[in-house]
Amino acid sequence: MREVTVGRAHVPYRVMGEGRPLVLVHGGSPGSKAWDGVAGAFTGTSTVVLPDLSGSDAARDDGGELTVELLVEQLAAVISDLGKGPADVVGHSMGASVAAALAAVRPDLVRSVVSVTGWAGRGDEYLRNAFTVWRDLAGDGDTFARYTMLIAFSREHLAAIGPAAVAELTTAFRPHPGRLRQIDLASRLDVRDLLPGIQAPTLVIGCARDTLISAEYSRALAADIPGASYEEVDSGHIVMAERPTEFVKLVRDFIHPG
Fold first, then answer.
1. Where exactly are the structural domains of the chain?
2. How would you label 173-212 residue by residue, b for 16+ Cβ within 10 Å and e otherwise?
3. In sequence order, which ranges of 85-203 are alpha helices (DSSP H)?
4. Which of 20, 22, 46, 165 is paired with 129 by a 20 to 30 Å CA distance?
5. From edge to edge, which strands make up the β-sheet containing 46-51?
6. C-beta of residue 148 within 8 angstroms of C-beta of residue 158
7. Tens-digit pLDDT profile for residues 214-250
8. CA distance 99 to 90
9. How far apart are CA 44 and CA 141, in angstroms?
10. Is the pLDDT of residue 24 over 90?
11. What three-state secondary structure class fits 121?
């Protein structure tokens, strides 16, 4: 485990594999372990980098308000500390917006971008109210965890894995302070002004069964990035868990064409 210090934050990151750097950026989640199910699939062709940004369980900071600018600064510090040149950057959910913002403001650090079920701005009334309800449930840990699980996975996936696995999943979605800071940022996140400035090749992946970040938001994000490609997967929000093989192929084919 390596670590960089950015202001008052200590940002750990894991490194595995060999090749051109591939940075996997977590969204509103416990952190980089959200990628554990697919990270190994890229190690044969890429140096996989798994940072834990502020708000994650592993990062240490002053507990202050999260901003896109803060997370972009941390992500830039990780890539610079690695010292292997510009990286392919894959961001999931809120991490997709952070990855896009990094590409816009630090093009020297980004070779390509993959945005996975991301969104550009504050969204419509549905999204704003979904974040409000999610945050307001924090006083009841069990209900918060169950609601988080319901917006993280499709109905079909939960039915397929069965009651025991569903019950186990809820333990990963408790209302820890970092999670609440992430939700607060998600509710006011807005990178729309940055998107036209992205020069790196970009792939946007939307998820057809995502009940939180509708594929409609991902399609709109793709439309605002010059030359971006768009693909849609029949999955809920955490596509890495629901459709890992399809997800890995999309990313691998994009960052290593031919």
1. 2-121+191-255
2. bebeebbbbbbbbbbebebbebbeebebbbbbbbbebbbb
3. 94-105, 125-136, 141-152, 155-170, 177-188
4. 165
5. 2-6, 9-16, 46-51, 20-25, 87-92, 110-116, 202-207, 229-233
6. no
7. 999 999 999 999 999 999 999 999 999 999 999 999 9
8. 7
9. 40
10. yes
11. coil
**Segment 21-41 mean pLDDT:** 95
Report whether 57 contacts 178 (CB < 8 A).
Answer: yes
Pick the CATH number of 2-121+191-255 from 3.40.50.20, 3.40.50.10610, 3.40.190.10, 3.40.50.1820: 3.40.50.1820
**Host H or E run for residue 48:** strand 46-51
pLDDT attached to residue 200: 98
d(CA 249, CA 243): 10
Specify the residue for token string 């693909």.
231
Q: Which two tokens stand for residue 190?
A: 């807005």
Pairing of strands 46-51, 9-16: antiparallel
Would you say the pTM of this structure is higher than 0.85? yes
Mean pLDDT for 8-23 is 96
At 125, the amino acid letter reads E
Q: What is the DSSP string of 191-255?
A: -TTTGGG--S-EEEEEETT-SSS-HHHHHHHHHHSTT-EEEEES--S-HHHHSHHHHHHHHHHHH
Assess contact for 243 and 121: CB atoms under 8 A: no
